[in-house]
Amino acid sequence: MADQLHPKAQSGRWRRVSIRRRVISLILLLALPIALERGVALLNARNQQIADTIDRLRQTVQIVALAQSENISAATAVVQTLGPQATSLMADPAACEALLRQISGEVLGVQGAWIGTIEGRVRCTNARALLNVDLSDRDYVQKALKSPQPAVSDFFVTRNTARSGIAIASAERDAKGDPVALAAVGLDLQWMSRSSVHAGLSGVHIWVVDGAGAVLARHPVPTTIPETMPSAAPLLQAMMAHDDGTLQAPGPDGVTRYFAYVRLPGTAIRVLAGIDPADATRAIDQRILATLGLLFSALTALTLIAIYAADRLIVAPIDQMARDILAAGRDETRGLGEAEVREFEPVMRAFEAMNRRLDERTAGLRNINRRLTALASTDGLTGLANRRTFDVQFSDEWVHGADAGRPLALVMADVDNFKLYNDTMGHLQGDEALRSVARMLAAAVAGTPNLAARYGGEEFIVLLPGCDVAAAVEFAEDVRRLVAALGIDHPKTAMRRLTASFGVAAAVPSLHGSPDALLASADGALYEAKRLGRNRVVAARGPAEAVRV
Questions:
Q1: Residue ranges of the chain with per-residue pLDDT less than 50
Q2: Domain named HAMP: which ranges (predicted)?
Q3: Rounded to an integer, what distance in angstroms lies between the CA atom of residue 229 and that of residue 240?
Q4: pTM > 0.85
Q5: Engineered SS bond to 336: which of 53, 277, 324, 499, CB 3.0-4.6 Å?
Q6: Which residues are within 8 A (CB) of 337 and not within 5 positions of it... i.e. 6 or more apart?
Q7: Which one of 97, 172, 397, 458 is the catalytic residue?
């Protein structure tokens, strides 16, 4: 709610952020694009690694399929050679047996071969024992008997070795085209799988699968019991829909991998190669982790170095400048030191200029203050000290005199017949007469500790510290003569000039006494001087006694 009421609150918070945090924020802002660029580059490299792995899987299954096709082609060539000679070869069973054994040993992947005659049903020679299966009811045998081309079987499991394989058969025909004999070769699918592993990648699994999803062979974990993939499996559906392709899906063993597959030409058999995604991206993932660690370490080191540099190069000069400014503000110094940072020089110059203006204004204020003090302590008409100033200094001198045991004297003066002078000469002339008397009094006390003050109206009073009655009377007589010597005309008096009367009193102050008693004595002496005819000095001898001089 406070931020809503004060829109500048958020910007104010940012202004209160320290320089160290600003440096860290700046580093993060600079490092963020670099980190993002490296992150995007590494992700692209990872995707490219996956694409390259899939391409190599595709190449692997092509190589494996080519090897399998070559094996099947070699076996097909064998049966195409044996088929037309089946009858003549069976005429010499021993030679036929030796030939079949030779074929089994020399043709790669062949696990057995046989030749038989056809008399209502298939009869086999002793070479049949190599396969040890009853082939008379096999579909591929029926296909071979009906087709002039060699027929390829689905997989089968041999009874003597329990190993999976396929068979290729070709029939010998008479002049009418009817089959009279049959030649067949069996291929070991496990051997086919193992023979093609060398073309694969590290960590690659290879399967040979028939059209029904049965696993005929696999590597690197061979099995003698074929596995069958569910008909709804995405991998099997994709393989059945296309002759080749790639995808990521659960494999025959249920493990999700990247897969590439291809169909062996002329058969429903598919060769399938797969690799675990973790194996495919392990190297790039390790590189990503190493890069992230390096970036984090570099960012941490750069931040620490930047904070240290900011403290030494920015914060420390600012602190020094702040100390100089505070010292100047406390009048501990009249100027600032050299700016340690060039960019701070305008601030320093601005502060120096402000400091000069402040000094000028301070001096002006002091002058005004002195004038105000003078106005508060002096009389506006005469320029002498006023009654308040006299009262304060009189009290101080009384205490000082009591402490030091020295006398204190008062001389009270009154301009004679001043009201008559004022009425005759006018108020302006009367004021000028008072100023003349005041100037004379000021000259009389100049250079002494004595204080001359206007006591009120036409009355003046002089404070004489350290003076006894005799010295005070002497001072008063000098002043009386000086007033008469001013020669101010007063036509309504016998002397026809302005004069003044004086009352003098002196005492040694005591802390138990009252300065008012001394003031009353001087006032009484002045009254006596007026009563005795004016233009004279009268000294008080005691609280109720005055002596005419």
A1: 1-3, 5, 120-137, 196, 543-549
A2: 312-363
A3: 12
A4: no
A5: 324
A6: 320, 324
A7: 458
